Each structure stands twice: as C-alpha cells, then as structure tokens.
Here is the input.
Amino acid sequence: MSRRLKVSAAQLGPIHRADSRKSVVARLVEMLKEADSRGSKFVVFPELALTTFFPRWWMEDQAEVDKYFEAQMPSPETLPLFELARSKGIGFYLGYAELTEEEGKTRRFNTSILVGPDGRTVGKYRKVHLPGHAEHRPASPYQHLEKKYFEVGDLGFNVWKMFKDDIIVGQCICNDRRWPETFRVMGLKGAEMVVLGYNTPTDNVYAPKEPPYLRVFHHNLSIQAAAYQNGIWVVATAKAGKEDGFWLHGGTAIVAPTGEIVAKSNTEEDEVVSYDCDMELGEYIRNTTFNFAKHRRPEHYKLIVERTGVKVEPSN
Ligand code: CDT
Here is the structure.
C-alpha cells in the first residue's frame, strides 16, 4: 500500500487588532471541521495565527506587546482546537507568539508547533530568520519589528515522525522559506514534507518600487525550488487580506516534490486548500538528481557555515 497523507492548508483572512482570541479560534475550528469533512489528516495554519500581525506597530509598553503573546499552549482559548483535532484524529501546525520563562529569564519567540493526531505536541520550532528591523522608523508607512519583539530561535531545524505511516515532517516559519539552508538542513534529516505559515505584506516596505506580483512570484519561486531541490512536499499557508488597513498577500499553496504547485488558494479570506499527497512521489528525485549521499560536496560548501555576509574575494 502506498503511503499517502491528505493535508489541508487553512488560510486565514485578516485578523484585526480588535478581534478576540476566542473569535479567531472559532475560525480555526471551522476550518479544521472543513478539512475533516474532506478527509484530511493534517491541517496547516498560518504564522502568528491567533492575532493580527502585530510587528507592524511600534509599541513601547511591553505589557501592550505581551497581549499578543501566549504564555501557555494549549491555553484556555486554544484548547477547543486541540480537543476537536484530537477527537477527529487530525494533526496540525500552528504559529503563535511564545512567551516563556527559561532559567529565570523572560523570552519571546515567533514559534510554531506540530500537534499529533492524538492531541500531543510532538515538535516545536522557533523562527530563525527574523526579518525586518528593531528601531522605530516613523517615516515608514508601517514597521516590521520582528527583530525587536522576538529573539532568534534557538531550536534549529528539526523533523519529526508523524501519523500512522511515520511520515517525516519538518517545520519553519515565513521568511525562513526564502533561505535554501532552511530546507536543506531538514532535507539532510530525512524530511518528506515541510510545513510553514506566513504573513507577507503585499508591498515591500524596504523596496516600495517592487510590484506586488513579484512578491507572490518570489514566494512561489522559494517554495517550489525548496520542494524540488529536496524532493519533498511543501505546504505553505498564508494569513491574507487587508488586516487593520495593511495588505498581506495570499498564495497559500501545496507544492509537490516535483516543484509543481498542485493546489492553491484563490481568495484572500479564510479558505481551506486540500491535497492527497503521495509520499512516495519524491523518492525518485531523492534517489537520482538530489541523491545527497552520492552527489553533495560539503568540502566545497564550508563558507556557508563559516561566513554570514559577502566578502568580495576574486580569484584572479
Ligand atoms: N513574517 C515574515 O517573515 N514576513 C516576511 C516579510 C519580509 S519583508 C519585511 C516574509 O519573508 O514574507
């Protein structure tokens, strides 16, 4: 019998500042029910799926910032989602802002978790590639303050065995998808599927001349290349639409190991996108062109881990 996994990407439309956690969780619950009615066993929700994308605002009062964070997961507000998923035997990925006390220190991360079909959290990831800036830029139409509100993730890129067929699942968050290193590390750990959520502004606040169509093109380019170059399934779920007056692009997509988009959203609202994934499809890619053991040449890749930025070094 072939190994298959029916997944659903549960795209969220806008979540406004005034929206309560309870109302958001009710939307997630509705989408999980829809995914269940389609026979999905895995649901992928977006990055920071419980609140508006708050890093767009400069806030000086830490108590105000902390209202967007979760000190507990599941929390009383999110418990209905966990309970429903467990009762249906569905696993899920959920992004949220994590507030934690570790070794007497308060820490804040942009986090995602993988929850198994039995309701247990099997894996946690803390975003590594934090985009944006840390200082207030009053002249900018909005901020992108992930570097102010979050620490760089400290858990690395890991994979977990999930579901009855022990499918090897990895996770990352938003901006991570633009970096090939993200997927290659998980590919080297045997990932068969990588899931992620994102909040991507339709305009590039750092390059206002970049047209919106290029934003979606770069999103697709990144996840399609990652899927093909590692022979894996990629599920990427957006928070989309005009949120508190600021536009986030949609483009939720399920990408096959061939690099082809096999299912995608066509709205910027709450929308469930599903696909029945053949987990053997990537095998021929992982055994031929991207047979890592046979063809990789790490002795020529050392700079990738030794150097962060560019230093011009012509050989002539
Ligand atoms: N949330 C997130 O990581 N968004 C970034 C926007 C980059 S532009 C500041 C992304 O890569 O989509």
Summary: Residues 8 and 274 are 4 Å apart (CA to CA).
